[in-house]
Amino acid sequence: MAADPYETLGVSRDATPETIKQAYRKLARQHHPDLNPGKPDAEARFKAVAAAHDLLSDPDKRARFDRGEIDAEGQEQRPAGGYRHYAEDMAGTRYGTRGDGPTPDDIFAEFFEARRRAQAAPRRGDDESYRLAVPFLSAVAGSTEVLTLPDGRTLSVKIPPGVETGQVLRLRGQGGAGWQGGPAGDALIELQVQDHPLYRRDGNDLRMDLPVTLREAVLGGQVDVPTPFGPLRVTLPPHSDTGRQVRLRGKGVAAHGTRAAGDLFLVLRVVIGPPDAALDAFLRDWTPEHPTDPRAGMEGQA
Questions:
Q1: Number of domains in the chain
Q2: Domain boundary residue among 156, 174, 193?
Q3: Cα 173 to Cα 23, 183, 229, distances in angstroms
């Protein structure tokens, strides 16, 4: 006869489902056959722990066990006197008194035996869900991140380029242990992509504000720009106003599968800089060759 499942897991009878789950994970890892090769006692203990968790993690089974309707193996507790004591047919005769067919006791016995065999059959382990914070650049270029589980195990999670917050990756065989030699469940990893101080994502494209000096905006020229794939020297077109975009093809989200790489858009932001007496003097005496009014037309829209 199986031991009391509460004693097997080392929990009290009023333990919460979370407490039961935590106790099971700890004991299952401690006694798992893969971690205790050649130790039949550990394997037996592992099976007992799995059986206890199977019963107590099912609210209906747990309630029926607490009421004494089933035993620790999930077997029905037959009422005193047997079903024959309670069952009579329409003529007032008891079941099993006519003919040579199976009695209700035989039918119940076969049902319980079939149920016992089903419970002893190999069964797949539970899927387990986790959450993983992914650095922005890892989501752009792809990487391998390490996830530490509550029981101390670590999983290497391959992050493909282009993943987004809320996306779930499935690691097959990395979930809960199987029962009676059944396969392990899967680990379901929900991704949370972190923000970046420079880049903003727009589909497969990236956007970045690029500060430029007044001289660079007017005359153009080469500037060094940080990209997700390393620094790059970029030539700015002359006479560039704030808000102008410079497109760097293929420098956005990396290609993955049949998806082409995205682009990086540099959004120029003209920075005047600290006070400069020479610049002030030049502008006071400067007369534009082609004067323009950047606010023309605004009056009629107010």
A1: 3
A2: 193
A3: 21, 7, 34
pLDDT 10s digits, 17-68 = 999 999 999 998 898 877 888 888 888 898 898 899 999 999 999 999 998 8
What span, in angstroms and rounded, lies between the C-alpha atoms of 249 and 229?
12
**Does a structural domain hold residue 293?**
no
Give the Cβ contact number of residue 251 at 10 Å.
24
Kindly report, residue by residue over 100-135, the tens digit of the pLDDT: 556 665 565 566 556 656 566 788 999 999 999 999
User: 255 and 184, same structural domain?
Assistant: no
Across the beta sheet with 168-171, the strand order is 128-134, 187-193, 168-171
Q: Are residues 114 and 138 in the same domain?
A: no
Residues 112 and 32 in one domain: yes
Q: For 79-133, give the DSSP string.
A: PTT-GGGT-B-TTSPBTTSSSSS--HHHHHHHHHHHHHHHHHS-BPPPPEEEEEE
* Residue 60, number of CB atoms within 10 A of its CB: 8
Q: What pLDDT is recorded for position 116?
A: 57
Domain co-membership, 206 together with 143: no
pLDDT at 73: 84
How wide is the angle at C-alpha 141 spanned by C-alphas 135 and 145, nearest 5°? 45
**Residue 234 and residue 248: Cα distance in Å, rounded?**
9
Structural domain span for residue 224: 199-284
Return all residues near 181 (Cβ < 8 A) that are at least 6 apart: 122
Cβ atoms < 10 Å from Cβ of 212: 21
What CATH code is carried by the domain that includes residue 270? 2.60.260.20
pLDDT at 57: 92
Q: Which of 147, 145, 202, 198 is nearest to 175 (CA)?
A: 147
| Crossing angle for the helix pair 40-56 and 17-31, to the nearest 10 degrees | 160
